[in-house]
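Exercise 7.
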Amino acid sequence: MFKKALVAIDASGPSMELLNAVGDLKKMGMQELIIVHVIRTELAGIGIGNRRKEFLKNIERKKDEFIAGGLQVNIHQPIGKPSEEIKHLAEEENADLILIGSLGEGSLVRRIFLGSTVTEVVRSIKKAVLIEKYRQKEDSFSRVPIFREGKPTTVLLATDFSPSSMYVFDTFLENPGVFEKLILISVIDEGYTEEQVQGNRDKADAKLAEWKAEFEEKGYEVETEVAVGVASELVVESAERNDVSLLAISKRGRSMIDELAVGSTADHIIRRSTRPVLLLRAK
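Solution. The predicted structure, written as tokens, is:
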């Protein structure tokens, strides 16, 4: 699915834990990894402290480990504004995927998704973005893995049948064998008459049935679901109920807004999901 991935890290615990996602990315086809640590302009002239020295040693150790595992790995340490440097490097290196992390709903999310470096990258970059999730226990963090031993790898694909959301379906249709099971979900707006809601439900059921047949031909196990209500809430609820490994959604829906906006369905799903979220943008 993704041959070249870029991961941007700093010296924080959650950020370093993000490197443990490399095993999942290899199962998704990754062959080359770009590790980026941006040095902010205002800190460029400050000497390297012990914590930073240990951080850099850890990165080098991880690089050696990944290379021994068959990956091509490069480390970049540009100086500048993190969001701009990450975007520039992703374009320059033609990365297929950007990997970032989030703890989920809470104070850290407000820092991550409301005006931070990560927000700027997620909303503006024209690349696929995988948002890993962490669980925090006291001062330690553990990543929520996509591939779990003894568990089928299930992906929830959410669609409103817009061209960009159907690109998500096409991506998985063209890459069989990575995941075992798909749950296809469409949410109908509850602000219609009962007759209109039923008509829209029937149309969604019919469209999902067609896609179900196509996915099954590719070897997937498939379930479909049509719900009525608030899309962001029902998609996350379905992901939890079905214990999915990953949510896959489009960065752009019927609103035709190019970038991920605060308050959008995708934005709310990212905030509320306790599962990793894959954001795909039609090329």
